[in-house]
Known about the structure:
This protein is α+β, with helices and mostly antiparallel strands and 82 residues long. It is built from three helices and five strands.
Amino acid sequence: MVKLRLKRYGKKRQVSYRIVAIKSEARRDGRPLEELGFYNPRTDETRLDVPRIVQRLKEGAQPTETVRSILRKANVFEQVRA
């Protein structure tokens, strides 16, 4: 199963995340199938590749709870239903 989840990177206490499509059995910082966005919790900055995320969701990818809340804030799920 493919999941949309966060991949951690950055220095200690200055963490940032990439939103990636990855196999559910893979480790957290393993090699992703595709990078779909960026999230910085310190500045609340988010950059998303919305067309690719919508395509992955239509193919059956399951977002984690954290990624789901990020996508909900960006109104991505409305584009999936349309």
